[in-house]
Structures are given as C-alpha cells and as structure tokens.
Amino acid sequence: MFSVPSIEPSPVPYIHMGKFELERLVDRFFILVHVKNPILDRDVVKQYCCEYLKQGPEFDLQSCLILLICALASVAPDFLPSGALGPAHRQSRSQSTGEDLTMGRTYFMAAEQRLGMAMTQHNSLAVQCLCLAGIYHMYRVNPMAGRTMFHSAGYVMQVLASTGSNNPDESSRMGSSLYWACFKSERELFAEIPIAIPAIGRPSQIDSFPLPPRERFMTWGGSNDSWAQAEQDSWYFFLSEIAMRRIMDKVAEHVGNFFAKIDSCDPVSMQTVLAEYAPVALELERQAIAWREHLPPSIRFPDPPTPAGTEWILYTRQPFFRTVELIYRPFLFACVHGLDSEPLTCEFANKGLRTGLQMPSGWYEDVRAVVRTLRYWEPAVSFLRSYIDVILALDDYFSGGDLKCTGSLAQDLQHGL
Q1: Computed from CA positions of residues 393, 394, 395, 398, in that sequence, does the dihedral angle turn out positive or negative?
Q2: Which domain of life is it from (predicted)?
Q3: In the structure, how many helices (H) and strands (E) does the chain have?
C-alpha cells in the first residue's frame, strides 16, 4: 500500500541562518509541532540555539536537533479551522499555510548527515532526534520511514532503561515524556502497519503518565502567559492521547478476539459469541465516554461533532469516534451478513453505524481541503494519486444522496479546486 519515495543522491547545500531566522523557526516549531509532541525543553533548545549561532552547524546531535527543528518548522502547516476553508479559499496550500517544503528538505538532509550518531549514542538527545525525524517523515507522508525512526527511538529508550546510564526514566519529567512519545507513536503506526513488534512494551507503572511541565518559558515571539497556557494545554493533549491509545488497544484486542472466535457460516456460533461480547462492548464504550467527559475545556469536543475550532479538538475527537465505531463493528458485521437479528444486536449495529455517519456541518468543504492537500503533496508522494481517485469515485457514487455529495470534486480539481 505504501511506497518508499526514491532518494536521489544530491549535495547538501551549506546552510546559513541568522539569529532572526533561527528564532522564527524555533518559535514556529514550538507553536505548531511541539504542542502536539512535548518532548523538548525550551530552555535547553534556547541554549543549543546560542551555541549553533556561535559555532555554526557542527557534526553532533545538538546541531542535528536544531536542524530537525528547522525542518519541521518549515513543513508544518498552520491549522485552518473549517470556517476558513470556504469556497473562496483558492490559494495554493503552501501560500495559505506558510509551508516551505524545499527549505524543510534542505534542513532535513543536513540533519540526516548527523542522524546516524543517534543510533550509537544512547542518551536522551539521541531519542529526541530520532523522534523528531520520525515526525518529519510523517509530515512528509512516509509512514514506513517514520516507523523506522520511532522504532529506533524506542530501542534506545530500552537500552537506557536496561543500563541505567544517562537514563531518562519514567519518573523524570522529560524522561516520562520521551517514554510515552515513543510508546504512543510506534503503537499508532503498529495498529495500521503491523510488521514489527514495538520496541517498547507495556508501561511498568500504571500511574507513570507524563509529569506536568515546569515553568521554563522562553520569551521569543510572545508573552510568558501565552507560552505557559500553550504548554499546559499541550500536556493535557498529550495525556489524552496516551489514555485514548490504551483504550484503543484494548478495543482492538477484544474485537480481534471476537473475529478470531466466530464462524461466519454458523449463526448459532455468532449469537453465542455476540452474547459474550455485548457486556464487554458496553464497558469499553463506558470507558471511552468517561475519557471524553473528563477532557479539559481546551481540548473538549461536543457529541455530535461540530466544526473543530482548534487543532487539539480535531485530533482529540478523531480517535474517540473511531473507537466507538470499532466497538460496535461486530454487531454491524452480524446484521450485514444476516447472522443475527436479535433486537439488541440491531440496536448496537445502528449505534455503530450512526457513529460512523455523524458528520459536522461544513464537512464537504473539508473534503475539498483534503483533496487540495493530497494534490499538493502528490509530486513528492506518488501513491497519493490513488487516494485522490478513491475520494473522487466516492463523491461521484454518492452524489445526490443523503450525504450531500455534489459529485463536482473531479470537475473542481480540473479547474484548480
């Protein structure tokens, strides 16, 4: 399904950054990337930046980290709420969201020359570099390379835990963030690409969630109060992702066990297994709803969904609705295949179906934005053309129905969308 983009050898241009440009990119990184992946310390990064400006890019992991920060800041898009994606939104995606893919690739190529040291230097800086490299590959729609980086980061974490040398253990603030970033990132990809066992196993402590950030805010590009609020919200978002990841893993395990037990040709077998699974499904849904109800206001989302006003809300609600739909998928499977028509089975099947079909207002314009995004990335990632073709085919198939598809996406694409 995924292809690895071909890499053509080319010389890495010399990179010269002034103080203003470096600070701009670091600010952009902390605003757009770090808030979703809080694995760095602002004060430490500020110190690395000062050394980078004095000495220039050296062949060490400190320079590697700075170059990765600049690469991510260059390719990370600004978040545009649904209301900003109206029909008048016709600019190219790079113009409208501040991305610079060429410079991002330049910074990353320079970082890659230093990234090999992260494989042999078993310390927290190596883990940070590998994690950021994985995030960069995910931004560039290259999940296989991203999985490799996250797996390597998890391996280094395991080495540190086993040797106790410079160990960012689960009890330290930064160590716990690194541990959970490796755990969460690799398992998210493992759920979609199960080709290797994750490097990090289950946490050794039930209560070993990331510790809250301490007050350590830089003053570049904003007030301390705004940085502090962003840091706090980032921590809440990180915690919510970890908690939901553990719920999703349990759901996937139970649903997988269900389909392993059933005989799809035997209605009696299906009814027996469904009767055993029904109370499990209710408990799993209770846990997912409790998770949503205990979210802090900054990342809480309504149900049924409405257009997301912030990126945190967008990324928080996606796994929730996906998880609830997955919980009730066995009942939908039974109904679709005519294997069980009991009232409870039909009720749960309807619940799963409704969860999958609940759409916020303005969702169709968001589909246009997705097609614009895929088209923008297509020259760099050729297999995205197949994604666009699937969306266009579905839009044409469902045009004129209750889903409010117009069937005009293909025509819009020809005219620049």
Answers
A1: positive
A2: Eukaryota
A3: 16, 0
Residue 270 sits at φ, ψ, to 5 deg, of: -60, -45
Q: What is the value of pTM for the model shown? A: 0.81
Q: What angle in degrees, to the nearest 10, is found between the helix axes of 343-357 and 267-293?
A: 50
pLDDT in tens, 115-144: 999 988 889 999 999 999 999 999 988 899
- Phi (first) and psi of residue 277, to 5 degrees: -80, -25
For 96, list phi and psi in degrees, rounded to 5.
-85, -20
Residue 118 and residue 126 in contact, taking contact as beta carbons nearer than 8 Å: yes
User: Cα 253–288–232 angle (5° rounding)?
Assistant: 115
At 405, phi and psi to the nearest 5? -75, 140
Q: What are phi and psi of 10, to 5 degrees?
A: -150, 150
Residue-wise pLDDT for 183-210, tens only, equals 889 988 988 888 888 888 776 654 467 7
Q: Tokens for 75?
A: 């390719």
Interatomic CA distance for residues 198 and 151, integer angstroms: 7
Hey, is 405 helix, strand or coil?
A: strand
